[in-house]
Amino acid sequence: MLGRIDAIDADIAAVDEQIEAQLAPFAQAAAQLDEIPGIGPVAAAIILAEIGVDMSRFPTAGHLCSWAKFSPGVHSSAGKSKGNGSTGHGNRYLARVLGEAAVIAGRTDTFLGARYRRIARRRGKKRAIVAGGRSILIIVWHLLSDENAAFADLGADHFTRHLDPDRQKRSHIRQLEALGYSVTLTPAA
User: Fold this and answer.
1) Which residue has the higher pLDDT, 74 or 175?
2) Is the pLDDT of residue 151 over 90?
3) Cα atoms in the 13 Å half-sphere on the side-chain side of 9
4) Gyration radius of the chain's alpha carbons
5) How far apart (Å, rounded) are the C-alpha atoms in residues 112 and 62?
6) HEC states along the chain?
7) Which of 103, 112, 133, 151 could make an SS bond with 35 (beta carbons 3.0 to 4.6 A apart)?
């Protein structure tokens, strides 16, 4: 039994060496993708194997997302949503690795993590996985379409930094007045 396990381990090592040899010409692209939160060396290799490094066939990031079936299908008529909102069948290997990366990125203190948690709170975990995977795929397109590009995180506080305090104040006042209160504001000491 131990001999069989050693033989299987040797086979796995041989396959890993072949994968590394095949991935060697794409080492720079794999290193670029490895910078994205949630994507490790294995996930970067899978993404490169599924979409390649030539992004000239996808004019925009939206075209790549559409090809991978990570574009939301929203159809409405007379204010009613039609269909189930699914994106269709795409590349299941790419979808699996993007979903795993989105969940892993959701646990980080980054923009992708904040986005995942924000969407999961409002719409549920499954939609957050698809939205996070789409965000990662857009980042992948930008990194692969420009070899000099580097990943720069927007920060976990991106959404709170871009809130307009005056607009928030007016909104809260309007809500309180709708409930029948008269509001006078005095600055805090």
Assistant:
1) 175
2) no
3) 6
4) 22
5) 18
6) CHHHHHHHHHHHHHHHHHHHHHHHHHHHHHHHHHCCCCCCHHHHHHHHHHHCCCHHHCCCHHHHHHHCCCCCCCEEECCEEECCCCCCCCCHHHHHHHHHHHHHHHCCCCHHHHHHHHHHHHHCHHHHHHHHHHHHHHHHHHHHHCCCCCCCCCCCCHHHHCCCHHHHHHHHHHHHHHCCCCCCCCCCC
7) 151
pLDDT score, position 73: 65
Pair of tokens at residue 161: 């930094």
Max CA-CA distance within the chain?
Answer: 82
Which residue reads 């204010």 in tokens?
79
The structure tokens 């928030």 sit at 168
Give the model's confidence band at 48: pLDDT under 50 very low, under 70 low, under 90 confident, else very high.
very high
Tell me the pTM: 0.76
Is residue 105 pLDDT above 90, yes or no? yes
Structure token pair of residue 109? 């203190």
